[in-house]
Amino acid sequence: MEPPEVTLENSDAVYDYYRDHRQNLVKAKLAYWLLGRRFQPRVGYAVGARKELRDFISAGRPLVISINHLSEKDPYTVSAAAWRSPLRPVIGHTRVLAKHEVFADAKMRGTLDMMGGMPVFRSKDHESYSVNAASERLIDTCAMVLTRGDSIALFPEGTCNYVDHTRVLELGGGIGHFVCRARERGADPVLVSLGLSYGPRPDPAAELSKADVRSASFYFGRPVGELPALPADITDLAREELQAALDGAVAAY
Question: Which residue numbers delimit the Phospholipid/glycerol acyltransferase domain (predicted)?
């Protein structure tokens, strides 16, 4: 199937494509390995988190990997951290949600598809009611990915945090909805919270230097295998867990 143009008007075809798309495992693992060597982020863990994460992965539980968002450089440093952590086995089997604009360039599109990218049509970028239908398709596609046994990684704040790099913004409700829908289909996802810090930043909106990017601090909170029943409660829990992970990343910087 040929990759469809990533536009809101074409969202049905877009999610039909990404529902069934498979990454090239060899190329994906090589790309993550290269990023791991290039950036070499520090990765820390809450007590017990490393073993629990490995155990959930060994058991075949799909992961919902929630990460705070500070910079356009985050996808690169997160990929590096994934390679240098227990997440390595799920590389090539994880969808990474990204704003649809980055899929416009053909060369970048190829890289995103290889790395597991899946486009998101954000309501903040569109005034059309059709974005609601696209969001429903995204939620359904994420649920199907989890039901298949693959994982989802996302920045649930939905935008870069240029306000306070030590505090998680309010989360969108999508994470709660696609987890619930996946469970309706028989999946049993695990919430994994990964905090990210680039150190003290007097101006959170300032562009990161190469030194900032290379010194990234990541911190895994303990994975949560028993999630609430309601979407809103899952979203609230995801924010609490992500804040705890961010606190760990800031403290470990």
Answer: 63-199
- Return the pLDDT at 125: 67
The stretch 172-201 carries a mean pLDDT of 96
- Domains of the chain by range and CATH? 8-252 (3.40.1130.10)
75 in Cβ contact with 96 (< 8 Å): yes
Q: Residue 179's closest CA among 171, 189, 170, 194?
A: 189
Output the CA–CA distances (angstroms, integers) from residue 35 to 29, 38, 201, 230, in the order listed. 10, 5, 24, 37
**Global pTM exceeds 0.85:** yes
Nearest-angstrom CA–CA distance, 8 and 151: 24
Outline where DSSP puts E strands in the chain: 42-45, 63-67, 94-99, 117-120, 151-154, 190-197, 217-220
- Coil, helix or strand for 58? helix
